[in-house]
TrEMBL record:
Residues 19-117 form the HTH hxlR-type domain. PROSITE patterns: HTH_HXLR. Keywords: DNA-binding, Transcription, Transcription regulation. InterPro entries: HTH_HxlR. The keyword Transcription regulation applies. The keyword Coiled coil does not apply. The lineage of its organism: Bacteria, Bacillati, Actinomycetota, Actinomycetes, Pseudonocardiales. This is Helix-turn-helix transcriptional regulator. It comes from Pseudonocardia abyssalis.
Length: 122
């Protein structure tokens, strides 16, 4: 975050430790957040479907990740008043914009995994 002498924020600077973009970067680059966003890019999902889709995530971590992504404006949470209530998660416009970048990263990792694993073994 670059600040003028008057204290006005001019632009985000992810290289500055004082910039709020650092916490957003931390939120969206966590393993679970990337997987949640990628799963929701395909379709809106309920909590249990998300948990089944993301193998290995605990209920606690999934709930925490969803709360964080919702607070940052990337995920929308809709509660349908049934018994029991049904909660569906989907991407917001902001989330769709971000997820386009993250799915490229996931695609790169999946495509180049043999090379990555070969490099690890040397």
């Amino acid at each position: 975050m670059k600040v003028s002498d008057g204290g006005t924020v001019l632009a985000a600077d992810v290289f500055s430790s004082r910039c709020p973009s650092r916490s957003v970067l931390d939120h969206v680059t966590s393993k679970w957040a990337v997987l949640v966003l990628a799963a929701l890019a395909v379709e809106p999902l309920r909590f249990s479907a998300l948990r089944r889709r993301i193998d290995g995530v605990s209920e606690k971590m999934l709930a925490q990740t969803l709360r964080t992504l919702e607070a940052d404006g990337f995920v929308d949470r809709v509660v349908t008043p049934t018994t029991p209530p049904q909660v569906t998660y989907s991407l917001t416009d902001l989330g769709r914009g971000l997820t386009g970048h993250l799915t490229g990263l996931l695609g790169f990792i999946q495509t180049r995994l043999p090379e990555i694993e070969a490099a690890r073994s040397t």
